[in-house]
Design a protein that fits this description.
It is a single chain. By secondary structure, the protein is mainly alpha-helical. Helix content is 79%, strand content 0%. The longest helix is centred in the middle third of the chain and has 69 residues.
Length: 309
């Protein structure tokens, strides 16, 4: 303990200009923080911040936690493959195909005018969306084509039902892409901006209050241990530190109130809900419009089956 006092007093007593004073304050604040963390400072020697400030701190912490919790989940909308786990295998296949096309086109361009046969240039496949709605639509379309080509009957009911089902999922797939784009633009971007700008500014102001409070308590310790010759200078340092803490606390309170009163998070959340509502409403409408037709085909096929028996 005596070592801390001697080192702190020695740093405080240095007169090396403004930079040295800043260094001395920073060092004393670090010493003060360490002593508090180690329980070497009595609770009544730690300056108590206003209750209003502490209440606002708790509310801002809760607001920040709420933003981060929702961001952690909704960031999936930044990548369209979040509901389509087989996309990795398809991506590898597409990469192999792309490389094959590249080799073929390279050979076609460089073997012209030689005695070697030049392969015909290959056109790469159009990129496909990797979402569950798109995959269901493609799978149903391929299945319908396969059934209709081999059935031998122009009115194959399963083929018709699959084609109808595929059409519904094509509409849903388009709505999925639109939903994700809207969520990225109107929710994720502003919601994340609230964390990285407004809330972070308030957090930095709170950090300034913490540093100022540590400097004040360190100055009080210096005054407590100062020799008579240095009492007046130490007292002046305490007064300046008190004024600085009051000013920084007021600024932090204002900034925290501004963050908490900001209506943007509610607007952002509303945009998220609207985008999701539009998607699910489109999906429900698309499926309900074809489900009746598929059911009719099912009943007809069941009737024909029973009649044949």
């Amino acid at each position: 303990m005596d070592g801390w006092k001697q080192l702190s007093s020695g740093i405080a007593g240095l007169n090396l200009g403004q930079s040295a004073n800043k260094f001395a304050k920073g060092f004393q604040s670090s010493v003060q923080a360490t002593k508090e963390r180690l329980g070497q400072v009595a609770p009544d020697e730690i300056t108590e911040l206003p209750q209003e400030y502490k209440d606002l701190e708790a509310r801002v912490d809760a607001l920040r936690a709420a933003h981060l919790a929702l961001l952690k989940v909704t960031r999936v909308y930044e990548s369209e493959t979040y509901d389509y786990p087989t996309q990795i295998q398809e991506s590898i296949t597409e990469l192999g195909t792309t490389i094959g096309h590249g080799i073929t086109n390279f050979a076609a361009a460089n073997l012209k005018g030689t005695s070697l046969p030049a392969p015909a240039p290959a056109q790469p496949n159009a990129p496909q969306h990797k979402t569950l709605p798109h995959a269901l639509g493609r799978a149903a379309t391929n299945a319908a084509t396969a059934v209709q080509q081999t059935s031998g009957a122009g009115d194959d009911k399963l083929g018709k039902a699959l084609q109808t089902y595929a059409g519904a999922w094509e509409k849903i797939a388009d709505a999925r892409v639109e939903q994700d784009a809207t969520i990225r633009d109107r929710f994720l971007s502003p919601w994340n901006a609230t964390v990285t700008t407004n809330i972070n500014v308030a957090m930095k102001a709170r950090q300034a209050v913490r540093v100022s409070r540590l400097e004040l308590d360190a100055a009080k310790q210096t005054l407590k241990n100062a020799s008579p010759a240095k009492q007046e200078a130490a007292r002046l340092e305490v007064e300046n530190a008190e004024d600085d803490l009051v000013q920084k606390t007021e600024v932090a309170i204002t900034l925290m109130k501004t963050v908490l009163d900001n209506p943007e998070p509610l607007k952002d959340l509303n945009e998220l809900a609207k985008a999701q509502l539009m998607f699910y409403a489109t999906a429900a409408e698309a499926l309900s419009s074809v489900q009746g037709e598929i059911e009719e085909l099912s009943l007809a096929a069941e009737g024909e089956y029973r009649y044949a028996i």
